[in-house]
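Limitations

Structures in this collection are predictions, not experimental determinations, and the ligand pose is part of the prediction. Treat each record accordingly. The example that follows, with adenosine-5'-triphosphate as the small molecule, is included so readers can see exactly what is and is not provided: the inputs are given verbatim, and the output is the predicted complex.
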Amino acid sequence: MNSVIGTSEFLTRSEEETRALGERLGRFLRRGDVVLLSGDLGTGKTCFTQGIARGLGVSVPVNSPSFLIMNEYQGRERLFHVDLYRIEDVEELDELGLWDYAERGVLVIEWPERGADILPGDGLIVELRYGDRERERRFTFVPRGERGRELAAGIAGAP
Ligand SMILES: Nc1ncnc2c1ncn2[C@@H]1O[C@H](COP(=O)(O)OP(=O)(O)OP(=O)(O)O)[C@@H](O)[C@H]1O
Ligand SMILES: [Mg+2]
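Predicted complex:
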């Protein structure tokens, strides 16, 4: 399982451990929650989202939405998986209507940096980094608002 470094820091050593960590978070998520996944190419944002989907009871495979910008899945709650990597200006974000999605389900956003400060909602920022070894990844959970603190506490305390 994942080793706990601190209350909001985790280390994984394989894709499956990353999915298990995402699943742990996914079990706590509910409509209106926003999770921002911030980290370099290949750190595991999509892999972590696959875990979130599992925790939300999504039964179909979750893939990178890179070319579509957004994929939608049905689980216990609806999951909107967004990748802003290819967004070139903030106006495109307006057209995407992210704000509406957040009200209708759980919104998970890769490359939130592309959306600058205009992203909606309370929730969690998950910062992903490469670890010292090849397959290690480090996760830091940064709460946004009251709901973010609840989620961070939940995931830290979950078995
Ligand atoms: N501990 C780990 N957790 C997650 N992925 C890992 C781990 N160790 C190695 N990997 C590899 O790292 C890659 C992670 O890919 P993934 O698509 O999830 O990254 P990403 O952050 O979404 O990238 P992008 O910015 O291109 O969207 C995969 O090739 C996976 O096999
Ligand atoms: Mg990705």
